[in-house]
Amino acid sequence: MIPLRRFSLARRTFLRGAIGGASVAVGLPLLEAMLDRHGEALADGTPLPRRFVSFFFGNGVILDRFEPTTTGPNWTPSPELVPLAPLADRISVVTGMQNLGRLPDGSFIGHYEGMTAFSGFSPAMGGAGYTAGGPTLDEVIADRIAATTPTTIRSMQVGVAKAPGLMGTGPLMGALSFRGTPGNVTALPPVLDPRAVWQGLFGEFVAPQDDRPVRLSVIDAVDGGAMRLRARLGVHDTQRLDAHLQALAELEQKISATPPACQLPTQPTAGNEEPEGNEQLAAVSRIMAELVAMAFTCDVTRVASCLFMNGAADTVFSEAGAGTGHHVLSHETSVEGPSKTQFDANIAFVMQCFAELLQVLADAPDPDGTTLLDSSIVLCTSDCSIGYHHALRRQPLVIAGGGRGHLVQPGVHHSTVANNPADPNGFADNGASLPTSGNVSDVLLAILQAFDPGATSVGDAQAGSSTPLAAILA
Question: Given this model, what pLDDT does residue 42 score?
Fold first, then answer.
């Protein structure tokens, strides 16, 4: 028997009609008929858009305040992760892993090696100091996307705090994104001025024509086409079509006040000009999050990185009540006291800013009816686990979003080892006995496979991985 041919539609199919002699069209929602037989791409083979964001903050955490005490799904946010609680079911936390990055001579300094968690490559020595040993994951993903779906901008890099890193020369403490090939990379420093970010994204952006007058009353005009289409759709697609048209009809009276979905956003007025020690970190972070979301909505780019603060930086979190630099505080957490309390508050503040980024993505609708967070993967970590002694053992990672079904949802807390209750922060021996297992680069490979299913490895022989972390995969 010859199998029946499956009815399919192009993603940009429209119901067409005419009003007053003018042609009008109504776009359709994402229907099953627009997907391939597996529902994993559009019918023409074009993949549904996935996005990636990396987020960095320096100087580590307080492990027993950061690591959740429960594992698996329905994990309970730890004190420093409480700001993430509203989105916990869309977040996975990975703890107990070891960062295997080392300096070119095999030695260990700290901070530099922690940046391996964003690339899988150990640091390298460049002409001006330490640099990344290979391209960071965001730039590898940008290359994969550009090969099939070129965007206006390959990737965007934003930053928030201005204090420089305290680890000498070289770009590794002041950039999160590196493009190129192993041994030959170029740093892509973050842009700290929101106005400059806007200009780079939208300076030559042409907003879609405002067709609101034409769109008014188009439901009646395209009714005949809708009737003909219903006759060819399956039950589920018919229900989606009817719901879509009903929603349009209900919104018809409001359309005249609604701008096009991707109009030119207003240029920010904030320039992140406040001096160090009095920076408006929360406000700048929020603006940067909104710029990332708008860039994704308009498909200007699908890859972004956010360097919240430089590696080993002495940023003063005045909004969290701090009067001392963050790096100094990180070295005073081995004993209970005001410094440890303030450092703890600083980490919670960073997580609040990170949570706002996630919430902005969760609140932004995607054209197919999901949200930007549903279609994105967001990776967050620091340059060490414990700032007090620059430890890379038990470097924690936070992974948010769904990546269009690539990551497990609801999220999980996956821990490779149990903590040492007698010395949860490893102060007795500078972290040398902290239990650890696995490789943080396993997380990178798991993420990369969302954008390149055929990827079998990431990073170098020292710190890279060929075993994706299955625990965070759907």
Answer: 56
